[in-house]
# Entry
Amino acid sequence: MRLALLGPPGAGKGTQAARICEAFGLLHLSSGDLLRAEKLKNTAMGKKIRDYIDNGRFVPDELMIGIMRSKLVSLVRQGFVLDGFPRTISQAKALTEMLAALERPLTQVINLAVDPAVLTRRFEGRRVCPVCLSVYHVDLMPPQTDGICDIDGAALVIRPDDMPAVVRTRIETYHQTISPLLAYYREAGLLLDVDASGGVDQVWMAIEARLARQGVKG
Ligand SMILES: [Zn+2]
# Structure
């Protein structure tokens, strides 16, 4: 099994990727984790990545593709779940080419679709502790005392990224970039749509059911 997981920020990609990997013995390749690891290295590439991330910009396609290629070449014999990559149509096409060259094409692409209203609520309810960086949610994971960190008693804050106007822009931008990607994989017959508006367990059961219908066993 060689999967890619698509879904907006807040869809729970990381959590679901971890579950899929555990159930099917796959390797979790998170573009975010890979970038963070590269960023810490004292190399020319590490410095380049640091510049992009620290300035709040997306890492350009060629750089991201280069990092993925080096990882995939060494790990492609194992099954994997890609999380956060591809993010653009040119990344998707590059991925198709590199996996074709390795004779290990993607087997499925899972699209975690979330109702925009649900997504907005997930972000807007998020609270972060400025001291220990613990993340809470007013509905889904409330602290014991409203607005106070369970661990150190600090007052919780809303990250600038989670402010309503910013959230709306992020969700719109996501849908604009993702629609050609969905069309690309739908046309290739690889796309499995999963409703990810529910809780973690519910979404996981939906993914499992979709994969089972494809004849994939855990
Ligand atoms: Zn704290």
Remarks:
- The chain has a mean pLDDT of 90.
